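G.,

No rush on this.
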Amino acid sequence: MSTLSCDIRVMTSGAFTAAFLDLIPQFERDTRNKIVVAATSIGTGANSIPSRLQRGEPVDVVIVADGVLVGFIKEGLIMAESYTPLARSAIGMAVRAGAPKPDIGSVDALKRSLVQAKSIAYSASVSGDYLSTELFQRLGISDQIMGKSRRIEGERVGAAVARGEAEIGFQQTSELLPVPGIDYVGPLPPEVQRVSVFSAGVAAGTRISGAAHALIGFLASPEAAHAITKSGMEPIAPQGRKRG
């Protein structure tokens, strides 16, 4: 089908949103297609991307955590041949703008900062699952800090931190950087960092397969690398892709 003058509906997780929004104008100029952003977060409940896909909401391109996308492929919701890893994303920490920045430069320093924090916020998606079900236990402080930790639903962690509802907050770095009213502290130490891959695929129900594939090809191209890097992620070079 022609890739000219059509609307491409896209659902993207929050981690890739900043880069994606930055890249839309160039793609629209180059192709004369229009991007319709249907979701900018994986979401929760009935409004989540999985729920929206499963009930057949129209969409052409989906960008989510790699494991989630692979699950969609297995469910027949995404075309397997369209599977394309786009970026690697690390977890970072933020505080309210102007607040002291705790030391998280080492595992011991991170552990101390978590214990000393009055309140902790984490996301309702990939990074939050890792912190609350793995990292806190691995550090041996889960019993000390889970009572003062809060899972943030329906918005970015940084928004809760900016309002003073949590002293420190954790989320994908690319989801923290665009939020006003917070200061980015830095990434988790390498020894306990969890890097997630975010991948794109074409929805099985699309009627504009050619345009959808073209968009994913653009997002995976060297032209898109600068925006991905600027957003706080690491682009995955096309030659590094694999098929799943």
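When you get to it, here's the other one too:
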Amino acid sequence: MEIFPFLIILAQILLIDLVLAGDNAIIIGLAVAKLEATQRRRAILIGILGATLIRVLFALVALRLLAIIGLTLAGGVLLLWVVWKTARELRAPADHAAGAAPGSLGGAIWRIVVADISMSLDNVLAVAGAARAHPLLLALGLLISIGLMGLAAGLIVRLLQRFPWLAWVGILIVLYVALSMIWHGWHEVLPHLQVLF
């Protein structure tokens, strides 16, 4: 492979990663915001390792996943659950001062993994499309997206600690992504339902 086309494809992958890693980073930031500092780092690390595994599995079957009707709809519904769970946790009275645990490490990791399952498909398919069957570029793109997600999540946590109201802005952004996935997924499924009935 010549160096110039390689660099063009790599630039495309970087742009895709910058655009699409943001929603995942918001979910990670929201999920770990109420954890203690040591648990927060552990949740981000474990969540990103889970995201890596999920994205590698998705990348291995990326083109076959496109053929699964209703996958986007199911991902949107899963993401709605993450939004509901996160909003419920934000609305709960702050028991931290009374000595209660500020959040569950397991719950935060679970929300990160579920959100990544529902939202990673667009990222993996976009990177796989840009990589055009070059496994090295595909792997590099996945590593870059995961690194960006981890860096952005750390920044988002610091912002949420300084400006707690931003958590609701993050929830609204993720809710928009979930509703958009449901909308597009429903329109993908609808023609197949009309054939059945």
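The chain has one domain: 3-196. Residues 166-196 form the longest helix (31 residues).

Enjoy the weekend,
O.
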